[in-house]
Amino acid sequence: MANTPQAKKRARQNEARFAVNKARRSRIRTYLRKVEEAIASGDKEAATAALRAAQPELMRGVTKGVFHKNTAARKMSRLTSRVKAIA
Fold first, then answer.
1. pLDDT digits 0-9 by tens, 1-18
2. Within 13 A of 74's CA, how many CA atoms are on the CB side?
């Protein structure tokens, strides 16, 4: 356990950041799940709309340090190609 005042403060800050990052990650996953569901239903318009809504959320996660930029780029690339493949 933290003993010094500095270490105690860092522990408090870490808890706060963890809560914020957890909420942000959850929100992004929700957007990605909506895209997945639209792809599974075979509705190209819904999938495209969901993908457009998910992209800024995913990129915001990158700027906030929740995801690495290559991870976000990979996810977007794979989702985009799957949406395009819907007949």
1. 889 999 999 999 999 999
2. 5
